[in-house]
Please model this.
Amino acid sequence: STKGNFKYLIKDTFSFSNLRDMLKNKLSFILKKDITNKETGLTGIITEAERNKISSSKAVNKSIQNGFSKEEHFKVAEDIKNIFENASLIQKHKDYKNRKNILAVYRFSKSVNINNKEANAKITLLEKMEGKNKIYTIELDSLDRSNPLSTPYSDAGLAVKAQDTRDGVRPNASIAKTDDKTIPNQDLKSADEALQNTDLKN
Model:
């Protein structure tokens, strides 16, 4: 991608484990470093836990449900620092999961172009009562409402399923079938085994 134009191209197909390794390498330079959103001045960091969340099957499947490939999800995720810095705040609400240290949940969105498809890259920031805010996850949402895979609402596909259900934003949230041809189940299972106990322990 070229900085500033938010256009991304990825034509090759990779295994889930390879994509996770590539993202790990790309994000290693920004882990635990402050990243500031220009519009709001809000700052967050990405730790190993958030990097794993971004590359989890749950996060990837949200992008897939919205009409994108796993490769496209990871390609955009590699540029999460640049995207977050230039994204616009679209939503703020309390943490519906009532996690002890979460003061508020912020949703940001940035228009991007991936493989000549227009999309919104949506990023969730968790504001902490103590410690640094966490840039929690990213997903791609299609602008093409004629795409049967894309979600019907502009704010659909938000990061935390429990919050989506509570908001009534995504009535079909339970429909989360994975296309085996797109992302092998065995890759998902093995990739997620290490993630089961990492969800916001920090």
